[in-house]
Design goal:
alpha+beta; four-stranded antiparallel β-sheet; three-stranded antiparallel β-sheet
């Protein structure tokens, strides 16, 4: 009744406690413990699951009894570690005391310094897939045809090419803004604008652009597309307001070219390069459309009348020439 039998298999280790305090380790085999007051407890751990999960781990480490039996790591606040088991990445751990049984599994601890802020590692993809990654790292993926603008503690630091990046969360405040570097288009709907001759119209434009200076595009405006939209609208208003309607209608290409030059000159301040600007639509109010239709009809009627008169004149000349030719023929016949 006072003797306790404990059987520990070859891949196990026994942790002996008395009155809740760590006393030592028991190796594989059969152990007989004299415990008349039932104050002795043996907790058996499998070395196949090498992580030692024990509240009194600090006591066990200080006792020195884990030496040669466990891999111990004590991580400071500015340290993190990768745990490799049997050559495979198993976990990412933060500050604290950890221990892993040796023997059944091959355990390797890779300690990392987070003062570098950015984690650069050959196994970064595998690290990003770990369940603990989101706890300790900000993971950022810059997609193809994009550029990442990196800010650390609010200051621009670098441009990031397409790829996977990781930054230590507790090291600094990092932010990555991704921008598409492909050619983009922006439809600009014109507000109602009054021409120099007091005609109200709407003019819509299509702008094609690319990001040429990513850091400036991020820093110059909270929304660079909206800023470009506003600049084009203002340019349209300024150009239409200094021209009469007829000039705008007859020199649409010239208006587009002038608009292109004006917007192109403003775009570098937004970190953009303007490739083209075109006038898509020019919309007149209903009464102006009716008036222009009437003018067009009148012009076409006048042109038709002119053509008819020309045809009548030509017919009369033809008849006169024919009569003249007949008279000349008769005269020649009489002389003969």
């Amino acid at each position: 009744m006072f003797i306790k039998r404990v059987n520990i298999r070859g891949f196990e280790i026994g942790m002996k406690f008395r009155n809740g305090e760590f006393q030592g380790l028991l190796g594989p085999g059969v152990h007989w413990l004299i415990d008349p007051l039932k104050k002795t407890e043996v907790r058996i751990a499998s070395t196949r699951d090498p992580w030692i999960s024990e509240e009194q781990l600090d006591v066990m480490v200080k006792s020195g009894m884990l030496a040669g039996k466990a891999e111990v790591v004590d991580l400071k606040d500015d340290q993190r570690a990768l745990v490799w088991i049997d050559g495979r990445l198993a976990s990412l751990i933060g500050p604290g005391l950890y221990a892993y049984w040796l023997g059944a599994r091959e355990v390797r601890i890779e300690v990392l310094d987070i003062s570098t802020i950015r984690l650069e590692h050959a196994e970064l993809k595998g690290i990003a897939r770990l369940s603990q990654a989101s706890r300790w790292l900000d993971i950022v993926r810059v997609e193809r045809d994009s550029v990442g603008v990196l800010f650390i503690d609010g200051r621009y630091t670098d441009q990031l090419a397409p790829g996977l990046y990781a930054f230590w969360k507790d090291s600094a405040d990092t932010k990555v803004v991704c921008l598409d570097t492909r050619e983009s288009q922006l439809d600009v709907s014109g507000q109602e604008i009054m021409t120099l001759d007091k005609v109200t119209l709407r003019m819509n434009a299509l702008v094609t652009y690319v990001v040429s200076d990513a850091p400036k595009a991020v820093s110059a405006s909270s929304d660079v597309r909206q800023s470009l939209y506003r600049d084009v609208q203002l340019a349209l208003r300024a150009m239409v307001g200094t021209r009469e309607l007829d000039t705008i209608l007859t020199a649409k290409d010239d208006v587009s070219q002038e608009l292109l030059q004006q917007v192109r000159g403003q775009a570098p301040a937004l970190g953009l390069e303007i490739r083209s600007v075109g006038i898509k639509d020019l919309i007149l109010p209903g009464e102006m459309k009716d008036l222009m239709n009437k003018v067009t009809e009148a012009k076409k009627a006048a042109e038709a009348n002119l053509i008819a008169r020309r045809e009548e004149t030509a017919a009369m000349r033809s008849q006169a020439n024919t009569a003249k030719d007949r008279k000349s023929t008769r005269l020649n016949s009489s002389h003969s």
